[in-house]
Each structure stands twice: as C-alpha cells, then as structure tokens.
C-alpha cells in the first residue's frame, strides 16, 4: 500500500453506488441501504434491473419476518435502480463493483465509472479471486490507487465478513476509507495482505473442497456423509470459533500442545495429497504468540466453558433446522 494522507472518513449516510444488479449486487445494496445510505444500483440490462428490484423486495420481506430489518419499506426506498452509470456513481463515496467475474468486464466498468465518480471515490470489486493489481493494471495513476477488492461472504446481509484486499499500489487512505465504511454498515472487514489468488475465504473453502472431492474419489465417504461431518461437527464449532481457536481449545496445552501432538499426522495427510507445508517451529511459535495474546493461558478453561455453553444454547436450533429440512 502507498500514501500516508488520510482524507476525512466517509459520513454515515453518504451516497454509495453498486455497479451490477446480479444477486451479489442486490445483497450489497440491501446491506448499505439497511445502514441508512442512499444507494444507486446500476446495470446496463433493463431485465436485470427489474429482477433486482423484485429480489431486493423479497429479501427485505424475508429479513423482516425474522426480525433482521426494522423497516423494510424505508430500506427499499433508499435504493434506486438505473441504467445510467454516470447517474449511479455521481457523488458516491464508494463504488462497489459487482460485474461478472471477468477481468476485462470489471476493468471496463471501473474505468467508465471513474469518469463520473468523485475524485476521492473508492472502487471496490466484489471479485472472488481476481487480484486487485490485475484489476488496476492499465488504469490511470490517480485511479489505480483507489482500486481494491471488497470480497464479501455470500450473502453479506447474513454473513458479515468482508475481505479488503489492496494491491501494492492501493493508497493506505483508500483501504482505511473502505474499512471504515464497511464497518459502519455492520460488516466485519479483514485486511488481506499480499493479494493471494482466492484471498482467505476461498483459499480456506478451497482446501476443504479439494479434500472433500478426494475423499469422494477414493470411496472413503459419500457426498452427503461428508456434508454431515461438516453440518454436525466442523460447521457447528466453526459457527462460533475458527480453526485456530478450535484446536487451541481442544487440547489442554493449547495450540502448542496440539501442534506437537497432531502436527506430524497433519503433515502426513498433506504429503499424501502432494502438499508439503510443514508446521515449522517458527510458524507454530508465531501462531501460539498470537493466540496467547488473544487468550492468556489462565483464561483457557473459562473459554472452553463458554464454547460448550454456546454449543448447548444453539443445539436445539440446529436440531430443529435438521428436523424441518
């Protein structure tokens, strides 16, 4: 990232734009408008805009049924739909690009939008895997520093994590502006460094999927049986705590003990799939330091009890969902 200057953080109700009226564009419009922002949704195809309008209303009605939006009518009224890109981005503090997952299409949308957007507008792509340095390549200097990836969980109105991925040329103020805005609308930004393909979300998801496919191929378990392991096991824990905290709490000695006990087995499993990424002592030490900074040893038992109580609290809900699915 470059540039030390930080402009004033965006106000809570600045106008925002969504470029692309597919399902993720509609979802972003909902998140932004629910937080009070006026939102312009652009798409070049009239049919897409009509479909998006209906989809937004349907999602808002469903959220209202579950008490997740207070006034769906007011939220709906904050969202406008247009086939005029200049109109959509005029005055927008952030342009959330939600075009199809093609580099040339996304670049063209950003380039066109920049002609009419404010000079300090940030351009955030919803790309799932395209590196921001590729998106920014060939764009004018003043525009390149305002381009980054803002990759959401899907749907973002239910999964609040969003990956903020700058390129080496993205200005520091643009990253902070995006993070501030996303936080203000209820999302939880995670800054991704070094822009790896797939970022964090899809690299983790991809690792699980690769092994799942291998287990099906090898006849170890069926598709539904593998899903059951996730539904009734991994997924239940991961809905509360991530993989590092999971293994930290699973072993009385914490992360260090888990790495010492299970590290060799995980290394053999990886090698079986042609992956050779051992947990070196330095790597384990770094992870342990980070975990102990988050959870000192003297609070370990307290956190284990918290985990169990949360699982107990959610178990009736999970079982009810399974019984009615």
UniProtKB/TrEMBL annotation:
<comment type="similarity">
    <text>Belongs to the 3-hydroxyacyl-CoA dehydrogenase family.</text>
</comment>
<protein>
    <submittedName>
        <fullName>3-hydroxyacyl-CoA dehydrogenase</fullName>
    </submittedName>
</protein>
<dbReference type="InterPro" id="IPR006180">
    <property type="entry name" value="3-OHacyl-CoA_DH_CS"/>
</dbReference>
<keyword id="KW-0560">Oxidoreductase</keyword>
<dbReference type="InterPro" id="IPR006176">
    <property type="entry name" value="3-OHacyl-CoA_DH_NAD-bd"/>
</dbReference>
<dbReference type="Pfam" id="PF00725">
    <property type="entry name" value="3HCDH"/>
</dbReference>
<dbReference type="InterPro" id="IPR013328">
    <property type="entry name" value="6PGD_dom2"/>
</dbReference>
<feature type="domain" description="3-hydroxyacyl-CoA dehydrogenase C-terminal">
    <location>
        <begin position="198"/>
        <end position="265"/>
    </location>
</feature>
<dbReference type="InterPro" id="IPR036291">
    <property type="entry name" value="NAD(P)-bd_dom_sf"/>
</dbReference>
<dbReference type="InterPro" id="IPR006108">
    <property type="entry name" value="3HC_DH_C"/>
</dbReference>
<dbReference type="Pfam" id="PF02737">
    <property type="entry name" value="3HCDH_N"/>
</dbReference>
<comment type="pathway">
    <text>Lipid metabolism; butanoate metabolism.</text>
</comment>
<feature type="domain" description="3-hydroxyacyl-CoA dehydrogenase NAD binding">
    <location>
        <begin position="16"/>
        <end position="193"/>
    </location>
</feature>
<dbReference type="InterPro" id="IPR008927">
    <property type="entry name" value="6-PGluconate_DH-like_C_sf"/>
</dbReference>
């Amino acid at each position: 990232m470059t540039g030390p200057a930080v402009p004033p953080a965006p106000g809570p109700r600045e106008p925002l734009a969504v470029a692309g009226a597919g399902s993720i564009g509609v979802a972003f419009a909902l998140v932004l408008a629910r937080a009070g922002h006026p939102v312009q949704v652009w798409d070049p195809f009239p049919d897409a805009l009509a479909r998006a309008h209906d989809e937004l209303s349907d999602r808002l009605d469903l959220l209202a049924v579950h008490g997740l939006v207070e006034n769906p009518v007011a939220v709906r009224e904050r969202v406008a739909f247009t086939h005029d890109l200049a109109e959509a981005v005029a005055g927008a503090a952030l342009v959330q690009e939600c075009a199809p997952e093609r580099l040339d299409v996304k670049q063209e949308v950003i380039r066109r939008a920049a002609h009419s957007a404010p000079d300090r507008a940030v351009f955030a792509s919803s790309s799932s895997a395209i590196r921001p340095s590729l998106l920014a390549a060939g764009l004018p200097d003043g525009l390149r520093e305002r381009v980054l990836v803002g990759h959401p969980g899907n749907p973002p109105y239910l999964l609040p994590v969003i990956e903020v991925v700058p390129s080496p040329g993205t200005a520091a103020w643009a990253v902070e502006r995006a993070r501030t805005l996303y936080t203000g609308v209820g999302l939880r930004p995670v800054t991704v460094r070094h822009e790896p393909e797939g970022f964090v979300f899809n690299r983790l998801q991809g690792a699980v999927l690769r092994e799942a496919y291998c287990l099906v191929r090898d006849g170890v378990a069926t598709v539904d049986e593998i899903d059951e392991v996730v539904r009734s096991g991994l997924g239940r824990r991961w809905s509360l705590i991530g993989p590092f905290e999971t293994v930290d709490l699973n072993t009385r000695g914490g992360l260090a003990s888990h790495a010492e006990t299970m590290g060799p087995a995980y290394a053999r499993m990886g090698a079986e799939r042609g992956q050779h990424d051992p947990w070196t002592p330095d790597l384990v030490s770094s992870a342990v330091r980070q975990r102990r900074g988050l959870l000192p040893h003297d609070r370990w038992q307290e956190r284990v009890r918290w985990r169990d109580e949360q699982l107990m609290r959610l178990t009736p809900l999970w079982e009810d969902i399974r019984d009615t699915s």
